[in-house]
Amino acid sequence: MTKVAVEFTLNTREQNEFVETGSTLLSALRDRLGLYGTKAGCHQGTCGACTVIIDGEPHLSCLTLAERCRGKDVTTLEGLAPAGALHPLQQAFMDGFAAQCGFCTPGMILAAKCLLDRNPDPTRDEVVDAISGNICRCTGYEPIIAAILTAAQGLRKPARKRA
Fold it and tell me: What is the pTM of this model?
């Protein structure tokens, strides 16, 4: 197979990778870059486990060709929280027991982040719509929805000033 160079930003860092023509972003992330937070679920674009953020929008990395990411800004779960701290969505999922097996969690969190970035005060229905492309077989979705709404509330609060 032919390899092509793909330059893109991955989790705020410039990346230059050689990928096989026709390979998916999912394959590049997991197999070439060792980023396993992006889950390989159905490989058909139906489960949402492989959701990543590309230029601020959620995308299914199993359906996205790696070479189409040239010049794009890609964020995976690993890029959400700098220096090992948890992002408020990750913290809300943990505190609210929103993850059972955890397989869908990365995709859910990234889909939710896209929603909260464009709408910091979503309704329950807007949260449901935002995660509608992500399948969870364990939770019944209620803890996930509650965690996203909790994170939204926390993100809207002004940061406390330290004395």
Answer: 0.91
